[in-house]
Amino acid sequence: MTPEDVKEFRENHSIEVCLQPSKIRIFSDEEYIQVGAKIQEDLSPCPVVFAVKEMPLGFFQPHKTYVFFSHVIKGQKFNMPMLKRMLELKCQLIDYEKVVDEKGRRLIFFGKHAGMAGMIDTLWALGQRLSWEGISNPFHRVKNAYKYKNLAEAKEGISEVGKKIKTEGLDKSLVPLICGVTGYGHVSHGVQEILDLLPIKEISPDEIFSLVRSSNYSKNHIYKVVFKEEHTVEPISPEDHFELQDYYDHPEKYRSKFETYIPHLTLFVNCIYWDKRYPKLVTKKYLKQLFSNKEKPNLRVIGDISCDIEGSVECNLKWTQPDNPVYVYNPFEDKTTDGYEETGPVVLAVDNLPCEISKEASIYFSQVLKPFIPEIVKADFSVGFDRCILPSPIKNAVIAYHGELTPNYRYLQNYL
């Protein structure tokens, strides 16, 4: 929450706010103190605690309400001890990810900012990789997203790269430079907002093949391809036809066909929601085959913004941090090497991308969360779940209540 919004809570809703101290927060402790907030490490007096991501096991206290991105709804193994601890302490857990409207659209998210930061870092990684390969390229001018003063400065820097491509063109070994983007939600919109600062020609997935066959392509443009589900998977049975809802309901009837496009992509940016019911887009087996070819593959960088470990991008083996954001996946040894100097694709796997453009992301997040906070803070969590009065989008996002999984989330018992 921004200091301005914290001030509004105190003045308009009589809500007292405590924050843990932080030397790296985009808004300083002093800015919060000036609007009447308290800065203290111990949050035990607070009945409701808001955070961004997971909290340490030792942080939770009995009967408290916690609101954060918990990353448990897929039964993620690494967070089951946290969920189990919250249940033991009879806590309430409200997950931002499940706060949706009547049409199932998420209301509280960082997606667009993750996409923007991820695309900036992906272009930085491309520049570093190509320079290591000895290929002259304009992308070496791009910095990590967090090294720009703000988002405006980052956009200005990438626009300058675009002008250079437009006037001088790309090295002939790089053309056609095709960037594939999977997904069309908030994350994808953020990716494309950055990508479109460059001289872009958008083509359909099917046009990739005719483009590379024709040799009638531009060295002064980057080709953008946005993939939807119908492009990435196909029915296993030749008698069936692709239907989106059928794919969502019965993913076991489908297989990936995305690997037919991969040889022609220089950049692949992954923005899809994925769980283990769905086919993988990039498999380790395929990458081993691709990099076994005598010709050097076009694929240089995979920006896995969705960042599911060994998920839709199977070679994503670990999360990274903004100051060490990439590693190379070696398909022959099934191992990673930090940096961009190795055989195999460079993988960007930062799992907290919005923090790299933290001021803009914080202002946006504060705006979308603010309307819900007074009703969460003033709710009576001592009554039974059926009698607890919360806005419908928030009540649907209550995963645990009084230490029990709520009806919509009882399936998580199978993962505990």
Commentary on this structure:
It is a single chain. The chain is an alpha/beta fold and 416 residues long. The chain has two domains: 3-108 and 358-415, NAD(P)-binding Rossmann-like Domain (Rossmann fold), CATH 3.40.50; 111-351, 3-Layer(aba) Sandwich (Rossmann fold). 29% of the residues lie in helices and 15% in strands. The protein has helices at 3-13, 29-34, 80-88, 111-132, 151-168, 186-195, 207-214, 229-232, 244-249, 284-290, 358-369, 373-377, 392-395; strands spanning 18-19, 38-39, 48-50, 65-68, 92-95, 178-182, 200-202, 222-227, 233-235, 254-256, 267-270, 301-304, 326-330, 335-338, 346-348, 398-401, 404-405.
Radius of gyration from CA coordinates: 23 Å
Number of domains: 2
* Poorly predicted spans: none
Helicity, as a percent range: 25-40%
Explain briefly what this protein structure is.
The chain has 13 helices and 17 strands. The protein is an alpha/beta fold.
List keywords for this structure.
13 helices, 2 domains, 416 residues, alpha/beta, globular, 8-stranded mixed β-sheet, Rossmann fold, 5-stranded mixed β-sheet, single chain
Explain the layout of strands and helices:
Layout: H1 3-13, E1 18-19, H2 29-34, E2 38-39, E3 48-50, E4 65-68, H3 80-88, E5 92-95, H4 111-132, H5 151-168, E6 178-182, H6 186-195, E7 200-202, H7 207-214, E8 222-227, H8 229-232, E9 233-235, H9 244-249, E10 254-256, E11 267-270, H10 284-290, E12 301-304, E13 326-330, E14 335-338, E15 346-348, H11 358-369, H12 373-377, H13 392-395, E16 398-401, E17 404-405
Parallel strand pairs: 1-2, 3-4, 4-5, 6-8, 6-11, 7-8, 11-12, 12-15
Antiparallel strand pairs: 5-16, 9-10, 13-14, 13-15, 16-17
Helix pairs in contact: 4-6
